[in-house]
Amino acid sequence: MLEGRREQCVSELRVLGTTQRQATTEVDAAIDMLVHYAGWSDKFQQVFSSVNPVNSSHFNFSMCEPTGVVSVIAPQDNGLIGLVANLAPVIVGGNTSVVLASESLPRCAITFAEVLHSSDVPAGVINVLTGLQDELVGHFASHMDVNAVIYCGDVQSRIKSIQEEAARNVKRVIIRSTSQARQNPDPYFILDTQEIKTTWHPVGC
Questions:
Q1: Confidence band of 181 (pLDDT split at 50, 70, 90)
Q2: N or C terminus of the chain with fewer C-beta within 10 Å?
Q3: pTM of this prediction exceeds 0.85
């Protein structure tokens, strides 16, 4: 669905000040990233789950389970690739997400929300918000129904505030630098928003 609106996204990035080449590269990278993570959706369980050796008559399994609701504060310096790079591994892992788009470059995020609406992604799985970080980040970090928060940025005062607010309900906090936030796809980003559940099963009963 995003590929079908490729030219629109490129033109929107051009309006925001990027060159034609930069805009085309960013949109194509976002499309490739979605395809890449979609390919991991039926594979990451086999990679990260395990059968553990135990010294008793039991099987012991460790399995990945979604964390739940994950809030994502997208990078400020790009409008599309940073958002997609941090959102895709969250939903591939079975989580739902509330995303705060770039404050200064929100246009592509709005288009991406329209793409999601016309895709097969169920309603409510991804919720894209625009607005001021100073007003909204505190709510993302402190909301009692949010189970994890991903912050993409390097503002130390904001990182400290997020960590303090998240501690109130033992919320997982993932901090990614601006460069990490849009790097090549990494399956370990999926693991960041997974809980590892261990199950014991008796043998011969």
A1: low
A2: C
A3: yes
